Amino acid sequence: MRRKDREMPIEFAHEVIDKAEYGVVSMIDGEKPYGVPLSIVRRGDVLYFHSAKQGRKVDVLTHNAHVSIVFVGDKRIPENYSHDELEEMNRDAKKAVKLISSVFTTEFESAIVTGVVELVEDEQEKIGAMRLICEKYTPSKMNYFDTAIGAGLKRTNVYRVGMECVTAKRKKYDEEGVEMKGGWEQCPS
Question: pTM higher than 0.85 for the full model?
Answer without folding.
Answer: no
